[in-house]
Amino acid sequence: MSTSPTEETVLAALSKGEEWALDNLFRAHYTYLCQAVFRVLGDRNLAEDLVQEVFYEVWRKRATLTINQSLRAYLKRAAVNRTLNYIRDQRLIVDDESAMPFDLASDQVGAVAQLEAEELQTQIEAAISDLPERCRLIFGLSRFEEMSNKEIAAQLAISVKTVENQMTKALRLLREKLTPYMMMVLLVLFEALLVIVSQPTTVG
């Protein structure tokens, strides 16, 4: 039975110019990195282009790479940095897609609740995509990349006050769009709970 090579093995092979090592990195991390960049830019094609550039740079600098963390963490940081560089180069202040402050996944919810949670996740993603570009970018860097308001302001060459205002705007827009749907979800879950409670229990 073949086993996956360790990160140390992949890095050693990469530094020697062995192409299978780059292919291994690409297969293991490409989709994850595209998702990370897409959450910031909201453009899938652009996200793929930027991530491909990250792998090109890794290959170009393979002989001198120094990585003191996990490969995934290193590649994500490289992808985020390239995204921020792109924003600065294009003078874009796009909106970031922000995660909502609640967790939708739970192994303990019933089938009805799980379906509602999945639908709610879809609604959240749609609401995030509809945010103005500046809100989406700033909110995304805050929630997905865990950057402080000061760090975001420095990266985008804007004031901390502007970051705060855009965060407030993003939260308000998401709340306005999602509140009606949330009320419907709560009603469905409440009705499902009533059905469960009304069912007779059996003692084994």
Name of the CATH first level of the largest domain: Mainly Alpha
Would you tell me which CATH topology of the largest domain applies? Arc Repressor Mutant, subunit A
Broad structural category? mainly alpha
- Unreliable stretches (pLDDT < 50, length at least 5) are 92-115, 195-204
Tell me the count of domains: 2
**Which shape, going by the Cα principal axes?**
elongated
Question: Can you name the CATH architecture of the largest domain?
Answer: Orthogonal Bundle
Strand content: under 5%
User: What is the tally of helical segments?
Assistant: 8
Q: What sequence of helices (H) and strands (E) makes up the elements?
A: HHHHHHHH
User: Alpha-carbon distance between the termini?
Assistant: 45 Å
**CATH superfamily label of the largest domain:** Winged helix-like DNA-binding domain superfamily/Winged helix DNA-binding domain
- Helicity range of the residues? over 70%
Radius of gyration: 22 Å
Describe the largest sheet.
Answer: none
- The chain-level mean pLDDT equals 75
Total strands: the figure is 0
